[in-house]
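User: Please run a holo structure prediction.
Assistant: Happy to. Please share the sequence and the ligand.
User: Here you go; the ligand is magnesium ion.
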Amino acid sequence: MNVLGIETSCDETGIAIYDSDAGLLAHVVYSQTAIHAPFGGVVPELASRDHVKCTLPLIMQVLKEADMTLRDLSGIAYTKGPGLVGALLVGAMLGRTLGFALNIPTIGVHHLEAHLLSPFLEDPKPSFPFLAGLFSGGHTLLIKVTGVGAYEVLGETLDDAVGEAFDKTAKLLGLPYPGGAELAALARRGQINRFYFPRPMIKKPGFDFSFSGLKTYASHVIFNHLGDDLAKADIARAFEEAVVETLVVKCKRALKETGYQHLVIAGGVSANLSLRAALMHICEQKGVSLYFPRTEWCTDNGAMIAYVGALRLLAGEREDLSVVVRARWPLEELRLGVCNLRSFPANNA
Ligand SMILES: Nc1ncnc2c1ncn2[C@@H]1O[C@H](COP(=O)(O)OP(=O)(O)OP(=O)(O)O)[C@@H](O)[C@H]1O
Ligand SMILES: [Mg+2]
């Protein structure tokens, strides 16, 4: 089954074609960063308008790359939520209309399910059950995953998402939007142990997070070192270390609690090299296998949408003709007892 994936939940237009026999055939991600950068954050109306301009041409580009026409598609998947409503509506309306016009099945995909299953685009694939850390720009979740559609949230952030904390701290450091990767690059030049940032909530029992205080702490340290440009890298380093240790402590605790032998991390912050290294270290110690997507699939992309769309379409799920999007959509509302994912091929593109 050839499934076209359309991702428009925020500020990236991601398009891909995933073949359930051959794997990923083609994909493209167009980032709106340049449009939003002057405002220091995503402007929803500008995001929607740009998706309107870009989505169809990118679909045509991806079809050409895969040497296919619209008629060769056998299914359509679009991001149904959670995300910015206007942006979601662009992909949903186009996806549903294409599905109707081509008379092929169509499915709305949960953006966070797509992030957390994105490591299945790689080989080796994780085995169920696993613990998933979804660390993105809008979410920070620790999830028990016992199958596709079987998700139990163990903990989440009580305020800012971890990616949001990276972005806000990066902005305070004068780095360009979106700042997570820029802050991480700056941190690599920073001196270890010059500053020490608090590790929020690690002493509290449970699996919840809080990152807004860390960002406020960073703002005080930055204010106290105004004019000292050399301090910036050291501050970035201390901030990153605090975030990484906080995430690692909670992952370790959740692995202990669940007894799971597999850990998956996904979402934009899972691209962070210090986080990956720290998790690799604890996983090696505990004999746990660690999985994460390649860097380009940590942030938003169409490949993960096409992949989850293929899973759900093959399991018989369909959208009806109404176009519904969900700005908020708890992951635990999802159901579906699929399926032998090992029989699904990984990336070929
Ligand atoms: N190397 C990195 N280190 C830390 N953070 C990073 C890195 N690379 C990307 N990020 C952060 O990842 C986030 C973007 O990730 P993603 O695209 O998954 O989030 P989103 O789609 O905005 O949110 P959500 O998926 O929750 O709706 C941004 O906050 C960005 O700063
Ligand atoms: Mg995302």
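The chain has ten helices and ten strands.
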